[in-house]
């Protein structure tokens, strides 16, 4: 089976994915879908094979999404697909099809999950950041615990249920940091985000956050929340906005972080998780 990629050459994320596919030794069939959009049956199959909802594949930024009223929750999947066929710019990108699965690769790092052979050398994106590989780890992982202690972040609840933690590395195996979340349905509390000291100040943190948000998205989260005492500006640059605690759902306020592990002075921030 040949790897196929639905590509927009004007999109940096799409270009980064294509570059990594080629670095991995693939010779993908590249379909510039704005000029050659898929037919209805193909688009329906791509979305079904990706395991995503039709609405989650809709691109909202830089498209006629609002003008067409596509934010109306009453619209059916068939109507949404009809809009995507009429306006291919509404199809989010890039979609990659390999023998290991079909995936909407946003951020570009997640393409590694459908590659048979991941390059074991450093590959940089256009903006100079490395591709990131996320691996799930246990909450009591000794290195994670020490990194959080060094960063003066809470550690007493790491082994409790409902938490997911990840270690992040480059393709060549250089450690970049850690992150985690606590999920409650469509809400998720982002926590334990730490960049390795030697990689701070290089823009790595926002890339780790993007990969972590995608991990949360893939398990059904659509709104992210977090508490921070001194990193509000960093998170706001990634789309989080300060909100009052009255605006948070009860399940977020009931977390141990909100209930006392973080000081009452910690700022609460939130953002929608979209691709």
UniProtKB/TrEMBL annotation:
Hey, what's the signal peptide range on this chain?
A: none
Taxonomically, the superkingdom here is Bacteria
Q: Does the keyword Oxidoreductase apply?
A: yes
Q: Which residues form the N-acetyltransferase domain?
A: 132-259
Q: Which residues cross the membrane?
A: none
Xref: NCBIfam families? arsC, resist_ArsN2
The identity of this protein, by name, is Arsenate reductase
Origin species: Paraburkholderia kirstenboschensis
Provide the organism lineage as a comma list.
Bacteria, Pseudomonadati, Pseudomonadota, Betaproteobacteria, Burkholderiales
């Amino acid at each position: 089976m040949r790897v196929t990629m639905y590509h927009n050459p004007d999109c940096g994320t799409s270009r980064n994915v294509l570059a990594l596919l080629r670095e991995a030794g693939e010779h993908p069939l590249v379909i510039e879908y704005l000029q050659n959009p898929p037919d209805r049956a193909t688009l329906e199959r791509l979305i079904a094979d990706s395991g995503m909802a039709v609405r989650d594949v809709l691109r909202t930024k830089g498209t006629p999404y609002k003008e067409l009223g596509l934010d109306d929750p009453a619209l059916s999947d068939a109507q949404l697909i009809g809009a995507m066929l009429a306006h291919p710019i509404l199809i989010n990108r890039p979609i990659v099809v390999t023998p290991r699965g079909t995936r909407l690769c946003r951020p570009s790092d997640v393409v590694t999950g459908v590659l048979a052979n991941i390059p074991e050398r450093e590959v940089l994106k256009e903006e100079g950041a490395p591709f990131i590989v996320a691996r799930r780890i246990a909450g009591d992982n000794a290195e994670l615990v020490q990194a959080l202690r060094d960063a003066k972040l809470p550690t007493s609840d790491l082994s409790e249920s409902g938490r997911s933690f990840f270690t992040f590395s480059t393709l060549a195996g250089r450690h970049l940091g850690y992150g985690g979340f606590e999920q409650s349905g469509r809400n998720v509390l982002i926590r334990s985000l730490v960049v390795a000291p030697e990689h701070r100040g290089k823009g790595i943190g926002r890339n780790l956050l993007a990969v972590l948000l995608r991990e949360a998205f893939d398990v059904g989260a659509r709104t992210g929340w977090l508490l921070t005492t001194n990193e509000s500006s960093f998170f706001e640059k990634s789309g989080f906005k300060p909100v009052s605690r009255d605006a948070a759902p009860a399940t977020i306020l009931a977390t141990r972080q909100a209930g006392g592990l973080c000081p009452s002075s910690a700022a609460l921030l939130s953002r929608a998780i979209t691709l």
